Amino acid sequence: MIIGICGGTGSGKTTLARKIIESVGRENVILVEQDSYYRNLADMPLDERRQANFDHLDAFDNGMLVGHLKRLKQGQSIEMPIYDYKKHVRSKEFEHLEPKPVVILEGILIFAEPRILELLDVRVFVDTPDDLRFIRRMQRDISERGRTVESVVAQYFATVRPMHHEFVEPSKRYADIIIPERANTDIGIDFICTKIREEVGKQLKNRKNQVKKNEE
User: Fold this and answer.
1) For the segment 169-187, what is each residue's pLDDT rounded down to a tens digit?
2) Most buried among 11, 179, 182, 214, by the most CB within 10 A?
């Protein structure tokens, strides 16, 4: 099972994903972030990299992401890229991920890419007001990515805001579940966790039946 969690930048996607993982257990779920699949801009000067549009579909290597999702769904391991947000390049190292019963994929544009959308078994959209998302993004980019207030504001008006309205917001119509900010998110989390437990139970039962069949 692959669960997609979509929403604008700073909407709380990662926080939701972590709550779900804590509830059902890390042994049952792995987290894949679309941000890890940003294209490698190492062949461009740093100043040009900083001007790139990181909120457009073309900013991601979606072909690699789709291939990795298919491998995980088939029970195969992957080497997930590690992205350096300060230098806008892909690290030479990778994160090895073993398949588990459930994959949670989170990202701003996962519903806007048809190849990814069709792989998702459950689609969740975190709906958060623009002003709150912007404040969260600014706090994150300054504290974690070495950005300045001026650069965050400039990027927001140049690409983040227009791309959100062009790609992210319209993709909300594909969601099975919409979780509004400040609503009772426990209801949505409980529903998702129930689906995960059902899937884990089904896979466990299938494995037991297969072992029994082999023994016979």
Assistant:
1) 999 999 999 988 765 567 7
2) 11
Q: What is the pTM of this model?
A: 0.89
DSSP 5: E
Tokens of 44: 């461009």
User: How many angstroms separate the CA atoms of 142 and 23, rounded?
Assistant: 30
pLDDT in tens, 88-118: 899 999 999 999 999 999 999 999 999 999 9
Query: Both tokens of residue 91?
Result: 């690290």
- The single residue listed with the structure tokens 């082999």 is 214
What is the distance between the alpha carbons of residues 52 and 159, in angstroms, rounded to a whole number? 9
Question: 111 — alpha (psi -120 to 50), left (phi > 0) or beta?
Answer: alpha
- Over 21-59, what HEC string results? HHHHCCCCEEEEEHHHHECCCCCCCHHHHHCCCCCCHHH
Strands 122-127 and 2-6: parallel
Q: Token match 């990181």: residue? A: 54
- Domains of the chain as residue ranges with CATH: 2-215 (3.40.50.300)
Euclidean distance between CA atoms 190 and 184, whole angstroms: 11
Tokens, residue 46? 């740093």
DSSP string computed for 79-113: EEEEEETTTTEEEEEEEEE---SEEEEEETTTTT-
